[in-house]
Amino acid sequence: MAAIEHLETILAYYARPGVMTGVGEYSSSLQALSDDLPSLVEVVQGLMVHVFWAERYGLKLSDDRQAEVQIRPVVGKLERIFELDPHPLNEPRSLERRLVGNCRDHSVLLAAMLQSNNIPARARCGFGTYFTPGRYEDHWMVEYWQPNLSTASGGRWVKVDAQLDALQREVLSITFDPLDMPTGAFITGGQAWLMCRRAEANPDDFGIFEYKGWDFVKNNLLLDLQALNKVELLPWDVCGLAAVPYTDLIPAQFDLLDGIARLTLAGNGSFEALRSIYETNEALHAPADWLAQR
What we know:
alpha/beta, 14% strand, globular
C-alpha cells in the first residue's frame, strides 16, 4: 500500500503544471486537444519550427523571429502562437506562422499539453546521441508515465522526442521510434556527469557547436535537476552553482553534484530526495525574475 501511495504522489506531482508549463487563460485550448500522444506530438510540430532547422525547410528567420527562443514559460509561447495565427491549436500553421523554438521548447509545450490532460509528464535535459556521430549533442526530450498495473513498478516513464518530424528523421537517418526512445538514444545530464567523472567519456564530446566540456555537462546536470522539480529553464540559463566554473569547484560541491547525478538516475525511489535537495539549496534555484516573465 505504501508503494502505491508513493507512486500516486509522484504521478500527481508530474500531472500538475509547473511554473513553466502552466497555461493560464489558454487552458480550454489545450484541454480541447486529444490526449493521444502521437496526435499531440503532431500538434507541437505543427505549431513550432526549430531555430536551427528553419533553413532546411526553406524558411529564413529575422533576428526578431529568432528571439522567440527566449520565451521561457509555455503561457508566453501560447500567447505568441495565437498572435501569429489565431486558429485552434490542432490546425497546423504555415512555416512562417509557426513559433520559433528549440528542443527545450518542443519538450515543454508537449509536457504542458499532457499535463493539461492530467497525464504525468516532465521535460528532461541532457544529450542526444543521434545528431552528430561520435558526439553527445545538447538536447531535451519528454518523459510521460505509461501505466501498466501488471508490472511491479505500475508502469514506466516513456521517452519522447517531440522535435523529430518526418524531415528530421530522414536527414538524421533515425531508425528508432521517437515516441518510445530506446535506452542510449538520450543521455540525461546526470548520466553524462557520471560518465565523465568515471572517465567513461570525454567531456569535450558533450555540447553543441563550439560549446562543450565540463561546464556544459555540469549545467545540463543542474538543468535536469531543475526540470525534475518542474522548473524548466532555457538551455543557456546559468545561475547559482551552475555559474561556478568547474575548475573552481570545491570538494563539497563535487560531492553535491555527484549526489544529484546519482539521484536523477535512481528512478521513482529518489523523488523525495530530489525534491528536498532542490528545495533546501538556494544555489540550485533560478532568479525569481526569470520565473515571473511572461
